Amino acid sequence: MSAETKRTRRSLLVGLGAAAAASAAVAGTASAQTGGAAFRPARHPEDSWLDTAPGAKHRIVIDAPTAHGAGEAVLFANNLYEQTKAAYKGTEKDLAIVIVLRHFGTPFGFNDTIWSKYGKQMGTMLQFNDPKTKQPPTTNLFNSNAYGMDLPTLGNTIDQVRGLGTRFAICDMATHFFAMQLAGSGGNADAIYKELVANIIPNARMVSAGVVGVTRAQEYGYALIYSV
What's the predicted TM-score (pTM) here? Predict the structure, then answer.
């Protein structure tokens, strides 16, 4: 092998080594920027209930932050069940549906015991009246089928969709807020908060914050419907 050939080969090997080093550096930088692996959300015991939907083929979370949105959330849940049967020949067991009642949708997570006692104050805060009396409600109207098109539920009820498997998550932060508002300047907000929590609707649970419930559900594979 001639001297010239040896010099050429050495130059080629040096060049290839430099290129490989540069490629490794770029790859290392990219890996550092992305954490070296695909993102995986953390799992927490407080959220494990979201993973208890045996046999469900579809997961849906309905975010209901307003009074109107809480009513429509009940309607949307019913529509999901109906069309799963009609269009896909399935059953309600194919669906895992969670309605998150948060912000001004939170009071609809309380039963008639609470509405009969605090309905006037809550209705005033929500600017929500009984369509028949034109006054703040004294019952949870979204659990009544007597209003038809006068309510956003269109005659569907909380108990109806609950019976089909819908679960409810109620915002704890908003519940504290409403307890303070109901207590006013001279009441006992802590006692009212405990009263509210003791009277949530069936098949419901408190979550630390509604926004946490909505985002955690999406991390568990729930498709989002935003109901306002």
Answer: 0.85
